[in-house]
Structure formats: C-alpha cells, structure tokens
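Archive transcription. Copying these from loose printouts into the bound notebook so they stop getting lost. Printout 1 of 2:
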Amino acid sequence: MQPNLPRGRGPLSDALFEHWCGAAQLHPVVLDGVDPLTDDDLHLALWCSYQLHYSGFDGVDDRLEWDGPTLAFRAQLEAAFLGALLDEHRPDSVPRDPITALRVIAAQGGPPLSSFIEERGERWHLEEYAIHRSAYQLKEADGHTFAIPRLRGPGRSAMVEIQADEYGMGVPGDAHSEIFAAAMEELGLDPSFGAYVDRLPGTTLATDNLLSMFALHRHLRGAAVGHLALFELCSVVPMSRYLTAARRVGDLPALSRFYEVHVDADVHHARLALDHMVGPMVRADRSLAPMVVFGASALARTEVRFARHVLGSWEQGTTSLRAELAAQPR
C-alpha cells in the first residue's frame, strides 16, 4: 500500500507537490537562508523525491519517477545537501586508510541518546524513537541494495550477504523491516510506511536522505559502502541499550525481538563489512577509498545532529517530533 503524500512545509515541498498534481511548473531552487543539513522543507522535498524510487505515493503517477523537471529539481537539493556535507568533512582529521578510518570514526561516539533510553527511557520515549526511525526501518536494507548494481568485483558478495540477512534470508516475516513493523504495532503505533512523515523533522529525514543520495548515484557508491560499514560497526552497542530499555519497560516482546536480531546479526556484519567488503573493494579500486571515508564521516555527523535534536527536546521534557496536524492528508 502506498503512503499518502505528506503536507508541504514551505516553498520547496509545496512547489514539488503542485508540480506532481499538474498545477504548476518547477522553477530553479532558491535556498537563501536555508541550512541544507537540517532544513525541514528541503529535506521533506528531497525525501519525497527519493520516495518515487521506492514505493511512491498514493495518487502520484509512478511515471514521475523519471520526470525531467522533478529530477532537475532534486539535483539542486542534492547539490546543496552534498555540498554542505563536503564542507564540514575534514579528511585530514582521520586516517586515509578506510579500515583504520572506519575504526576511528566508530570509536568517536556521539551524544548519549542510547544511554538516555537505556537508563531513563520510558515507554513514550521508545514510541517516539520508533516513529523517528520508521522512515528508514520500514524499508531497512532497500537503500543499500540500490548500491549493489553500481559495484563490481571483490567485496560485493559480502555486501550481498549482509543485505540477505537484512531481508531475513527470504523467510516471510523475518525481514528486519517486517520485525520493526510488528514492534511498532505492539507499541500502539501505525506500522504503515510513511504514516508519520508529517511529524518527522528535517534532522530525522536527513538521516534517510543521506543513504538514498549515496546509493542512487554511481559517483557516490563508495560513500554508500562507507555508510553501510559504519552502520554495522556502530550498531551493536546502541541496539543492546535499546534492548535493555525494552526489557526494563516490559511487555514488549516484539520490540525486544527487533533489537535482539540486530545485536546478534551485527557482530557478524561488522566483521563482514570491514574484512570482506571494504577491504577487498578498496584494494581492487583505490579510487573508492576517499569516498568510503567520506560516507562514514557524513553518517556520523548526520546522526549526531539527529541525536542532539532528540536529546535536547527530551531533556526539556518535550516531544522531539513536529506538531500533530489536524487537517486531512493531501
């Protein structure tokens, strides 16, 4: 089932949605005063543009996936986002060797979001965190899978193995996205993909847009590899903390299973990612090395912005989600 088109948040998303509805033409993007790393309007428009390559939207013509004006509009948003990510990247601050760099970046850590949830998280924190992650987790693995046809040679088989695990090795109901949907339902949330996009701030949408941008562009394929590798390297500790919180809150077997599966799988995935994916890929094509490091670094910084936003709101006792919308969907 396709999600509804969310509500616009400003001139960028409004213009895009009006174009899709046949009501207006798209014009060059104006980004004066906009932060491409976090802006709500920019990241909603970019997320919706990427969504045409996934399940699309109810009432939006599937042929718009390759609509020239839409792709040109998206390219301007991507250029702003990628440019800002490159501006904050400091390649001299990490080792040039991708394996060493990945270990260094993974060890840097970030805001203690997982520790907060483990030690102080209540049920509403678990619910809100699930809503934040729903845009990614309900299609978990799909973004990285887009990168597979853009890669060749040694290391690709390890990536395929990681992805096969993410899809539950073909067992119905065992794909990580399906386990997450069951966990959302257990929490009393709507497990339909896209149900909460209107409530996700730009800092959250940016975490999903980052992967889609890397995976859908061949020149960024190395960044997609670095993204996946760091994701697997950094998964076990926070997933263990979320599991502890789910067990402490109690009566959440589906949510506990979701985190258990990741704790069990990602120890193996981390070794696969470093020794059998990144290593062979970079040895076969040294030109991938800088982008592998960039992809990991960009992921780390994007997740730091996300965690700071969520923690900052929770420390004040307020929601980290956007306000509820009383009006009906478009």
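Printout 2 of 2:
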Amino acid sequence: MNADLGVEIRGQGSGERGDAGSLDARALRGRFPALGRLINGHRLVYLDNAATTHKPLAVLDAIERHYRLSNANVHRGVHTLAEEATAAYETCRHRVARFVGAADARQVVITRNATEALNLVARGWGARLGPGDEVVTTEMEHHSNLVPWIMLARERGVTLRHVPVTDDGELDLAAFARLLSARTRVVAVTAMSNVLGTINPVPEIAEMARRVGAVVVVDGAQSVPHLPVDFATLGADFLAFSAHKAYGPTGVGFLVGRLERLEEVEPVWGGGEMIREVHLDRATWNGLPHRLEAGTPNIAGAAAFPSALDLFEELGLGPVRVHEQGLVAYALDRLSSLGFLRVHGPLDPARRGGLVSFTDPDIHPHDQAQVLDNLGVAVRAGHHCAQPLMRRLGETATVRASFGVYSDHDDVDALVDGLMAARRYFGS
C-alpha cells in the first residue's frame, strides 16, 4: 500500500463481462430522455452520477404537470390549486420519511440541497456550542461537511478534529476513538466518500460517538441513492441528502433528524411559514418541520420527487446495490489491467459504492476528461470538492467515473477505450 492511497489493484475478478445484477440498464436508459443524445456522433455514456443523476420521464412529466395544472403556493391558500400544491408538497415529505425509515414525517425538513441541510445543522444546532467544545469530522469529507464546521469554529471558537484516512482508503477508527472525549459535541461523517467510494460503518461510528454524548451528523448525499438506509437503526441524529443525486430534480434536499434533536435546532432563516405569531418587536416559531422551512420552497421539485422514489420502489435498493457493486468490480478489473493508472480507494468492491477515482501519471485528469468527452463519455475531473482528501492522496485532481441504474458494462468498456485513446493522443 502506498502512503498516498494510490493502490495497485490485483485480483478484482476474472475480467469476464458477467452480469452486473438483475437490473436491465439498457431498458432503463429508455426512460431517461437525455441518455438518448449523441455527443460528437457518439452515444452518450454518462458516468458523472455522483455529481448529479439524470431524470426519468416520469419526473419531468410531474414537474410539467405541476406548473401546468396545480401551480400555487403551499400551506397558505384555501383554493383548489393551493390545496393541490400543498398536498403534493407534503406527499413528498411523507414519501421521503418512508424511503429512509423515519417514523414520523415531522422528522423530514425540506431544504434546497444536502449542503443547505448540513449548514442548517451547523448553524442552527451548532449555535449552542462555544470555546472548549469539539467537532470531529474526517479527512474524506466533501466540503459541504467541512466548511460549515470551519465557519462555526471561526465564529464560536469551537475546536475541530479530523479522523485520518488509512492507506487503503478507510477511516482510521482507532484514531477516531482516540479523538473522542468528553469535549466532543458533534461527529460529522460522510456515509460514502464521493472520491474513494468508501462506505463508512456509520452505525459503529455513531455508537462510539454516543458513548461520549456526541451528536452524529451524516452526509448521505452519495449513500442514500445507492444503499438501503434505515434511519431508525443508522444511529445518526441528522442525515442530509439531495433529490438530484437520486434521479430527482435539482433544488430539493432533505434534513432527516431525530425529533428531539430537530427541536433543538434554532431557525436560521426567518419569514414565511416558519412563524407562528409576529409582532413588530417579537415573534414565535411554528412547530416542526415548518419552523425550519422559511419562504417559498421548490414546490414543483418536491411534487416531482415522489416519481423518482417510485423508481426505487420498483427496482429495490438491494438490487440497485448489487448492480452497482458488480459494475465497480468490473471497472476495477478493467482499469487495473491497463497497467498505468493509480486507482484510489478500497480494493474490495463490497467496501465501496458505485464509483471509481483514478489518475494517469502522464496525463492531467482534465485532459483525460476532454478526450473522453470528445468520445461521448462524461466523467468528472477535478478535486471533487474534497481538497483535504486530495492532499492526503498526493493529488491535485483525479478522474471520477460514477455509475447509476442505467450504467452497464458497455459504459465501462467505453471508458477504458477512451482512456487508451487519450494515451495515444498524448503519445504516452
């Protein structure tokens, strides 16, 4: 193992195409209009699902249907359109609660995205923290689960601690145990790394945090759309994720929390539905979850997201996980067979989600991504909003290929062919 997490992958399968699972990815692609595009005369091979997923026709139709037939503001009107819009908006809340295993729909706060949900916790719950209190995050966090805590530390004098990442791309739980103390008030951790694909043992981490009385904040942006989740047994106090990474619209996210913890969150934004009574010099707040939802939300997006959840209920998150794990195993095998890539993250496909991140020592990731795009293959190149982890890897950037329910072995083959084309183009 290299100290910079660059690992040489061996023995990751037979190299045969095999079956990525029970999902018919090619048939599923037919439900996603954007995937029928040609890019520079090539079939679009979309491998940027960790950034955002495409939207099925059912979601697009639901957005249009809302604006065509039921466009109105929510919670305030008594006319038919307002009642229809409110019913659709609240249906989203109830469906999300069921999807993640929350017992009460009041546990679901609708936000703009996972980033806003994490900021809401850091600012709204973190308002009770001060000098002497400690927040533990990790080296593998997305900036959305680092920057809000950095801002809190600047404003309130909180001390930040960080769990290191091991050479094989896992969190160092022994080091985590040493970081915990009676001063630890918050443990903020991603359930799945958006760079390494590492699936973190959140229940174990949460149990360790609870021994010192810490609140557990989980970034589920990458995990919720890909892995079965049960909030009741996850051990988290707060869970954040976005609709747009789960085949839903952009501009809609969710903060799922324990009711007793959500009650402790101070409203960050004022006005609109979050109030109960307002005087010129004072105000009282509404009950959960509305006290944390100020102003007019993305009503159409919320109304459409249940159509994406219908897809998950049809397919089942278990089969989705099997499908993506099979793709990762195949991708790791194909990429390692090239002999010139450094692939980052755990060696075992069972320990990682549906993405692979790698570098070619002779070609910059942005150049690789450009060649791939010319061939119709869409990947992400850059630091992936995880600059501390990039420094740990000894990289400035990587190429990341991430899979969805409509990805298959042909997509992996197109990726590998594109990487070989990049080597030929740059004379490597």
